[in-house]
Design a protein that fits this description.
Layout (H helix, E strand, L loop, with lengths): L1 H21 L3 H23 L6 H19 L6 H9 L5 H16 L6 H28 L12 E2 L4 E2 H27 L3 E3 L3 E5 H22 L5 H27 L14 H21 L6
Antiparallel strand pairs: 1-2, 3-4
Helix pairs in contact: 1-7, 2-3, 2-6, 2-9, 3-5, 3-6, 5-6, 6-10, 7-8, 7-9, 7-10, 8-9, 9-10
Length: 299
């Protein structure tokens, strides 16, 4: 299993890193594909949990919310009618308006269920799925639009003089990958005490500690890439690492409800798309919040 995981990471890792360095539009193109595949997997999990959401409507709604979120993240480079639409919907935001419309449509679709309880569960779960994937995946793109005050995502920063957007995206990747790697290896070799047994029996307290240590070391690399003062790594690593672990557990909760060990089978040794992005879904908005509030950057 470990050999398969490493081989898959060696193949897919460079694709992710290249998209991060190249930035837009490649990052959003990759994330658009991720949104579609993640929605397919999530709908299958909800089906396995006997919730049976309206599959086509839920898939279309999730993809619509996610892609409008990506468009909003790229607002500065969007022109024409989309630019006018973004200005008109600046409050509360295009993605949120599409989400609100999705809630209405999915609610109406639930009227067809003979049992009101079944209809309510289907409506609740489908709208959860749309928000979970459709709102959180675009937050990864938002990381790629961070820049220094008075600058832009393309402004050179840090030790490699990368564009700020690329530097922040790489920081997100190395910290999350650092946490996941540290937690996996430490838990595998030293894990004795279960972290949250009823959700994910394989997670251990020792793994959490090892993950946070490696996440902090990775955050040190991130501060060098982004030009932040080194002390930020001592806060950024643990905060983003804990968010990454929470994202992993949140997806495990869904899989547990569905009676599944993995969300899919697209990535050998790693399961499905959701299994690979779950940590990023919670870590990305936390990193954006940290950067805006404490990191002295802007979007």
């Amino acid at each position: 299993m470990l050999a398969t995981r490493l081989l898959t990471a060696a193949v897919l890792g460079p694709v992710v890193l290249v998209a991060a360095v190249l930035g837009e539009p490649w990052l959003s193109v990759l994330l658009g594909l991720v949104i579609f595949l993640a929605m397919v997997e999530l709908i299958a999990l909800l089906d396995a949990a006997a919730i049976e959401p309206p599959q086509v409507l839920t898939l279309l709604a999730g993809f619509a919310v996610g892609t409008t979120g990506l468009v909003a993240a790229n607002a500065a480079s969007v022109g024409g009618a989309l630019s006018d639409l973004l200005r008109a919907t600046a409050t509360p935001g295009l993605a949120l308006l599409v989400l609100a419309g999705s809630i209405v449509v999915l609610g109406i679709a639930s009227f067809a269920r003979a049992d009101p309880r079944t209809g309510f569960l289907s409506w609740s779960a489908s709208t959860f799925g749309v928000a979970y994937i459709g709102l959180l995946v675009p937050s990864i793109a938002l990381v790629g639009h961070l820049g220094p005050p008075g600058g832009s995502p393309s402004t050179a920063v840090g030790g490699l003089s990368l564009g700020a957007g690329a530097a922040w995206t790489l920081t997100l990747i190395v910290v999350v990958w650092g946490y996941d790697t540290g937690a996996y290896l430490t838990g595998r070799w030293l894990g004795r005490h279960r972290l949250i047994d009823h959700i994910s029996p394989s997670k251990t307290v020792e793994g959490l500690g090892g993950g946070l240590v490696l996440a902090t070391l990775a955050a040190g690399l991130g501060t060098w890439l982004t030009g932040l003062e080194p002390w930020h790594a001592l806060v950024l690593g643990p905060v983003v690492g804990i968010a990454a672990q929470a994202g992993d557990l949140a997806e495990s909760l869904v899989k547990r409800a569905a009676g599944r060990k993995e969300s899919g089978f697209l990535i050998p040794g790693h399961g499905g798309i959701l299994d690979r992005i779950d940590s990023f879904l919670f870590a990305a908005p936390v990193l954006v919040g940290y950067a805006l509030l404490l990191g002295g950057v802007s979007t």
